[in-house]
Amino acid sequence: MHIPDGFLSAEVWIPATVVSTAALALSVRKSNKLFLDKSIPRIGIISAFIFAAQMINFPVAGGTSGHLLGASLAVALLGPWLASVSLSLVLIIQCLLFQDGGVTALGANIFNMAFVGVFSAYFVQKLFTKNSKLSSTGILISSWFSIVVASFICSLELGFSNLAPFNIVVPAMLIIHSIIGVGEAIITLPVYMTVKKIIPDFELMNKSKD
């Protein structure tokens, strides 16, 4: 889902960059209200895990591969605003230091994964959260849903850039990422449960406010 340079038209990547910049500024401002002394190292742990996980690709179908997005995990443990900041930092480092995703497409990649992915996961998790406890079902569904929604927005960007017709790029992206989403869910749930078992108070989601 990391879009490289040359795939998006200026009419797409420029507005995406503007929107992502504004959204990241809002996330940073919201996150400042949530910082505790223990927040910074925990954000670092989650960011490092997501960074490492996104560098590992697994085969899907037709020669394609996928990787963990990490939006659902980050939301479950950090809340949506901190999760958006965390994923944005991961994507910026991957782009600038490892050329994973294009510089011109960075705004679109941040928008797709750090905001669409994060907040789609967040809204699903809210439906499955009772008495500040997030159910395993919520983790599984939000993991899958965040991948599919983010890929749908990505496919629209590619379509509007005339890279491929909508009737080809949208179904192709959704089918492939529906499979990737299953892998995301299978990986995310045990990681979340393990972190919660080792550090019971890690979850900060119920501290974040819209």
CATH class: Mainly Alpha
> What is the H-and-E element order?
HHEEHHHEEHH
Mean pLDDT score, rounded?
A: 87
Second CATH tier, the architecture:
Orthogonal Bundle
Could you list some keywords that capture this structure?
single chain; 210 residues; mainly alpha; Arp2/3 complex 21 kDa subunit ARPC3; two-stranded antiparallel ribbon; two-stranded antiparallel sheet; disordered C terminus
Walkthrough of the structure:
With 210 residues, the protein is mainly alpha-helical. It has a single domain, classed as Arp2/3 complex 21 kDa subunit ARPC3, CATH 1.10.1760.20. 70% of the residues lie in helices and 4% in strands. Strands 1-2 form a two-stranded antiparallel ribbon. It has a two-stranded antiparallel ribbon with strand order 3-4. Strand 3 and strand 4 form a beta hairpin. Helix 1 packs across helix 5, helix 2 crosses helix 4 and helix 4 packs antiparallel against helix 5. The longest helix has 33 residues. The radius of gyration is 16 Å and the shape is globular. The C terminus is likely disordered.
Provide a concise account of the structure shown:
With 210 residues, the chain is mainly α. The chain has helices at 10-32, 39-54, 71-78, 80-98, 106-127, 136-160, 166-198, and strands at residues 58-59, 65-66, 129-130, 133-134.
List the helices and strands and how they pair.
Blueprint (H helix, E strand, L loop, with lengths): L9 H23 L6 H16 L3 E2 L5 E2 L4 H8 L1 H19 L7 H22 L1 E2 L2 E2 L1 H25 L5 H33 L12
Antiparallel strand pairs: 1-2, 3-4
Helix pairs in contact: 1-4, 1-5, 2-3, 2-4, 3-4, 3-5, 3-6, 3-7, 4-5, 5-6, 6-7
